[in-house]
Design brief:
By secondary structure, the protein is an alpha/beta fold. It has helices at about 15-35, 55-65, 80-90, 115-120, 140-155, 170-175, 185-195, 215-230, 235-265, 270-305, and strands at about 5-10, 45-50, 70-75, 100, 125-130, 165-170, 200-205. Strands 3-2-1-4-6-5-7 form a seven-stranded mixed beta sheet, with helices on both faces. The structure holds uridine-5'-diphosphate and magnesium ion (MG). The site of uridine-5'-diphosphate has 17 residues, from strand 1 and helix 3.
Length: about 325
Amino acid sequence: MEAICLFLVVPCYNEEAVLEDTMAKLTDKLERMMVRGLILPSSRIVFVDDGSKDRTWAMIAGGHEHSELVDGIKLAKNSGHQNAVLAGMLSVMDSCDAVITLDADLQDDIEVLDRFVEEYQKGSQIVYGVRSCRDKDTFFKRASAQSFYRVLGKMGIEIVYNHADYRLMSRRVLHELSNYKEVNLFLRGIVPLLGFQTSQVTYERRERMAGESKYPLKKMLALAMDGITSFSIKPIRLISTMGILLFLTSLIMLIVFLVKDFMGVTVAGWSTIVISIWGIGGLQLLAIGIIGEYIGKIYMEAKGRPRYIVEKYLGSAGAVRL
Ligand code: UDP
Ligand code: MG
């Protein structure tokens, strides 16, 4: 198999506690992969400083001085994990054959990097790192992650189970990804939408080496909300459905109460009030739902996502290097 030029993209937010160790381990790993003839000497590790407030950037700059394998990108401000990953990938995509993204705390086993590259060499354009079990996670993290997958599934959003952002993407796929211009980015939802030949590599996820998780509950909830609302207008549909149900209930009530009225069983005036409450409530919800449908359409259009992706082209124009 031919060696490839591989770039590792590592987002870092206040990671001074782990960075030195991470740099040493990753450069060592990259060197070993070069010796194995898996990757070219032009391969690099790119650390993306996501607006850290500690010594992270100074350490990245130091690493760059020290080792020619280490590159750095500094974002102007803290833009969030997803955006940091994207910034790294899109900045380097023209310099390499493939990019692998991984977290700075090396919770994801770096010994499987070889297998990512081998899958790429076998023809996969996207390789997902999938963790085999979650017993190293706290109970809370595990439970919240699982309910997150369940909700996404219900909303009709296709994501890879137990895959975080440890993944390989080819230059070809990155170019397509760069056409997704949305501001609220949820990579795990977008990448499966791209298509192409994919495969998976399983590994065991460890505990964080040092420092604290940079994903507190607040950020996790924000990511979950982004994941749902960036891909689905089902919540809006839910409102319309509720409206229809309420309105139907009021119609049924109308019939029931009319019958009772004729039989003289109800208190005077009661039926009219109750039926109006349900009827008007239902109609209002339905109206909001319909307006929501239009907003949903506008929202999808505003994203301006590509409607198709050409994977291969046979003919002379295909000579353009994709
Ligand atoms: N991260 C980032 N920007 C942020 C938050 C996190 O670049 O605003 C990076 C962080 O440095 C790490 C990765 O995203 O490399 C994942 O964060 P962490 O390991 O804290 O999350 P967890 O593993 O606890 O889900
Ligand atoms: Mg982590």
